Amino acid sequence: MQEIVENRAVAFKTRKGPNEIIAEKLDLDSCFTDDEIVIKVHAAALNPVDLLVKAYAYSWIAGCEPKTLSRDYSGVIVRRGKNIKEFDIGDKVVGSFDHLFGKEGSLSNYLTLDPKKHPSITKMPSFGDSEYDDFVLNAAWPLVFGTAYMGLGLLDKSQNLGPDSRILVIGASTSVSNALVQIAKNHLKVKSVVGICSKSSFERNKELGFDHLVAYDEEVVTDGVKKLIDTEFNGGKFDLIFDSVGNSDFIPKIDDFLKPISENSYYRTIVGDAKLKYTSPNLLKTFKPSETFRRFGPFKKYNYRNYLLIPSNTFMVLGAEMIAKKQFVPTIDSVFTFEDHTDAFNRLVSNKAKGKIVVKIA
Ligand SMILES: NC(=O)c1ccc[n+]([C@@H]2O[C@H](COP(=O)([O-])OP(=O)(O)OC[C@H]3O[C@@H](n4cnc5c(N)ncnc54)[C@H](OP(=O)(O)O)[C@@H]3O)[C@@H](O)[C@H]2O)c1
User: Fold this and answer.
1) CATH code for position 190
2) Keyword ATP-binding, does the record have it (predicted)?
3) In terms of domains, do 192 and 124 share one?
4) Which residues line ligand 1 (CB under 6 A)?
5) pLDDT for 321-344, tens place per residue?
6) Statement: residue 260 has pLDDT above 90
7) 93 and 121 both lie in a single domain
8) Nearest to 159 by CA among 259, 265, 237, 318
């Protein structure tokens, strides 16, 4: 017998308009192709990219049709196409659904996807005893874990960081950096990871694995990090500087902080050179054209990458493995109900979240 369900989603029509719950009927038996699965979503997590996507949803690019928000999801497979071999009905899965201005997003009751086209998916690992249920914790990790994985040069294999490496993290409190420090310390066994964050986040970030912290609200961060290089590292510089907030303070004196390019050191950023305003994101303000010649071309002075997450299954496999070995736990800021989606987005816009903001759906 045909099963028709109601599919509700948090969507927006125009960049200045509100996010609202929309609903449509979904025929569960005909809504998928032979290569697709249908997931009943239990939880989804918000990411600042949702704010960016909305800010740039000009009607001449994105139209005025409803666009569903969010990427990270956890849920249960309720239908599968006949060509799907790796998943079964009833499997609990976790992933990140990559889309831009799409009708489908993870803030919805059901998600229909082709796992080959959306490879950031795996069977859901269990966290064991925890304050949060497995669906909440699982929705909280794919996008930030994948971004951290790329930040460590693991996807393109551009760097081989290990016990002799030193990493500087600008923005130690962000969810991406929370994942990065756990991969660096627990998987790669990196000796020293230094983070920059507010003084009030020191205790929390130490518990996550940072070896040293410098407070951006108490001292000039370049002075604080230089002091550490001289006193703790005997003058040794960093193999990687990873920026997850948009701070260009280290750029003018990069040779004082980053090892030479001949030692395959990297400066990687996921935001550019300036802090993105969550209330009115403007990507143009995050580029520093004056650095172009030092960053690109045959005479570049340092390895620089400003990158976007590339969907992949490899980081999902590592994430699930690390969770099973209790080497990685995503940090949760807050959990909201589907109906309270506006409060969830207000929390994201505050830029004060300590960990992921998760919305429970099922
Ligand atoms: N390129 C990509 O593919 C990609 C992927 C994911 C995210 N991103 C971007 O990466 C950024 C971080 O995302 P997220 O979700 O990890 O962040 P988040 O969890 O929302 O970060 C919130 C934290 O940032 C810290 N912070 C705020 N202002 C700061 C400042 N001036 N200096 C240092 N820390 C500051 C705050 O902690 P304290 O002030 O207590 O330290 C706050 O708790 C966002 O801009 C996002 O758009 C890019």
Assistant:
1) 3.40.50.720
2) no
3) no
4) 47-49, 143-144, 147, 171, 173-176, 197-198, 200-201, 216, 244-245, 270-271, 275-276, 307-309, 351-354
5) 999 999 999 999 999 999 999 999
6) yes
7) yes
8) 265
Q: Higher model confidence: residue 111 or residue 52? A: 111
The first and second tokens of residue 47, run together, are 């990411």
Q: Across-strand partners of 306?
A: 269
Q: What is residue 184's DSSP assignment?
A: I
Rounded Cα distance between 340 and 360, Å, is 10
Which residue is associated with the tokens 């809504």?
A: 31
Nearest CA to ligand 1 atom 26: 171
Residue closest by Cα to atom 39 of ligand 1: 198
CA distances from 257 to 97, 129, 237 (A): 37, 41, 5
Residues 154 and 277 reside in one and the same domain: yes
The predicted structure's pLDDT at residue 341: 97
Ligand 1 atom closest to Cα of residue 245: 11
Residue 48, domain extent = 4-141+330-360
Domain count, the chain: 2
If DSSP states are collapsed to H, E and C, what string results for 250-297? CCCCHHHCECCHHHCCEEEECCCCCCCCCCCCCHHHHCCHHHHHHHCC
Specify if 315 maps to a domain: no
> Which of 120, 174, 278 is the best mutation target for the ligand 1 pocket, counting ligand atoms within 8 Å of the beta carbon and taking the most?
174
What's the N-to-C CA distance of the chain in angstroms?
A: 23
pLDDT band for position 95 (cuts 50, 70, 90): very high
How high is the pLDDT of residue 168?
98
Neighbours of 227 (CB within 10 A): 12
Grouping H, G, I as helix, E, B as strand and the rest as coil, residue 362 is: coil
Q: Ligand 1: which atom is nearest the Cα of residue 308?
A: 3
62 and 13, same structural domain?
A: yes
Contact 45, 34 (CB under 8 A): no
Please say whether the beta carbons of 294 and 98 come within 8 A.
no
Q: What is the mean pLDDT of the chain?
A: 95
Instruction: Clarify whether residues 244 and 167 are in a common domain.
Output: yes
Question: Is residue 84 in some structural domain?
Answer: yes
